[in-house]
Amino acid sequence: MEDIAGFLGFHPPFDAVDGDELARIAAVTETEVSPRGQAIFPQGAGPVEHVWVVRSGSVEVIHDGRVLDLLGPGELFGHASMISGLPTGFEARAAEDTVCYRIPADVIRPLLTHPDVLRFVARSIVARAVPAAPADQVRVRVATLIRTPPLLCQDDEPIREAARRMTDQGASAVLVPLADSFGIVTDRDLRSRVIAADLSPDAPVSAIMTSPAYTVTADRLSGDVLLDMLERNVHHIPVLSPAGRVLGVVDDGDLVAADGRKPLLLRRAIALADSPAELAAAVAGLDPAIIALHDARATAEQLTAVRSVVLDALTRRLVELAVRDAGPPPVPFTWFALGSLARREAVPSSDVDSALAWEGAGNGQDAEAAGYLGPVTRAVDEGLRACGMSPDAHGASAANPIFARSLASWHRAARSLTDDPTQDKALILVSVLADSRPVWRSGGPIGGTGIGGTGIGGLWETRPYPDQAGLLRMLARFALSFRPPTGFLRDFVVEHSGERRGQLDLKHGGLIPIVDLARWAGMAAGLASTSTLERLRAAEAAGTMESAEAQTLAEAFGFISSLRLDHQVEQLRQGEAPDDFIAPKTLNPLARSYLREAFRAVASVQANLSAELSLGVRWG
């Protein structure tokens, strides 16, 4: 008993309870052991008469077959159903062999009078619905969760008729228009105020309606609305337009179920997958998540970061499964993301570029490492394809021996660039080295001073080059390799033949020139492997690029990226394979004007850089 009280006392909300109360709770608390995969309670059960606290192991929160959350030691669950008196909105399942403390509801309910306990319960329910992770998710506007138009009736309509219409339309609430507000009757009202109270079904709905109903506007965030429900002890809330027109009704199930589209939950589902088939099922939610976030007006920077985070999680789990099957590696190694994924700028059309590096060289270690890692990299590539993701079509993949080598070999390749910047495929090599980011490391977390903790540039050598000016000149020349399709700055240059006739390549014509300019300016500022926008910000701060130029490029990058994502999200919505080609004539005049100005801005920065190169400015 003392052990139970001591454990509970270290975790909220029990840390706000005095010793005597903790002892009383511990005296009636039961220990429940659940093997991996066993349901602690199913979805739709109850309402439950206990709450549970995880003592050891972990518990999956599952809604309609999708993992919403993973709870660890000290976390509380079951309290939402206990408080609301409704069936459970999710299944609780042991993710591994798990021990929970089960506490009777009649012991917990009195604690809700304690302000700290009530505050914790409210926040925990909202946090589970809307996890606070700005970098990889966007909170949902409540209007996007409305599933059906509102069901309306007059206040004198018989309860029997209103109930019949609710059943026919699958609605859980009916609204009653009033002079300056609405009344509401829910399925819960039918049970508690009609059946339980033995009221005649021929009575008018006004006899059981709640008025005025609490309403919210369409732009409210789902997490805030869920908190409103808890504070007001309601389960349905009408949603109004800015003009006061009722758009529909959301219930607590809508708000909780909305979480199934969140990228954080995708990451958790990926982390729990135990096979490539399970991973494919989890990752199937990625494109719907991108569409939902786009509809919620997430920025291009947020959307690409979200996709990159999920692809990182997928790659990491595929490597873990491959290593599990292959056995312990003979040498430590690190898996790297390359290209747009390394910059966290992946879009639906992006390939998954990768490389790996292992520690040690010579004495047969390289041959042994290559023999072990060959099957591992092939298994990861096959897993990516099974999940609908494409390894790089041009061979920038860890499964290609050119991209799988010792760390010392990668560093030699980097140093060779300054010795001979004209070498074959130098442009590819410098972009691989500069745009690399460690994703997974055997034997420990990413970071530190060893492999994967190389500091500024992933695979890039950390110490200064003997000829730093020569390296920057090479990067500057590479930044002039792709030019915007402006055609004498009068109109767009489009494809004139083939299946892309009349279309514009947004990636090669608009984004790659900015990416290359940012790589040069960012590395001149001492910042290697990071996003394009971060490179531009660093270059502006360090003075390696004029402030006006850096801001102009950042604005152009944002606009072209948004245009590209608008195009690809619409293709996803139509079930088409996403690509980078748009027909300029399909854009409205304002968008055409903005795009032309963005291309001109990039061309202007390139012209200035070209002039500096020819005059030897900055490089001495």
Mind explaining what this structure looks like?
By secondary structure, the chain is an alpha+beta fold. The protein is built from 23 helices and 19 strands. Strands 1-8-3-6 form a 4-stranded antiparallel sheet. Helix 10 (263-272) runs parallel beside helix 13 (300-326) and helix 13 (300-326) packs across helix 15. 43% of the residues are buried.
Structural class: alpha+beta
Number of helices: 23
Strand order of the largest sheet: 1-8-3-6
Strand content: 5-15%
Our Rg estimate from Cα atoms comes to: 29 Å
Number of strands: 19
Query: Shape from CA axes?
Result: globular
Mean pLDDT: 80
Largest sheet: 4 strands, antiparallel
The share of residues in helices is: 40-55%
Q: What is the straight-line distance between the termini?
A: 76 Å
* Low-confidence segments: 125-138, 447-457
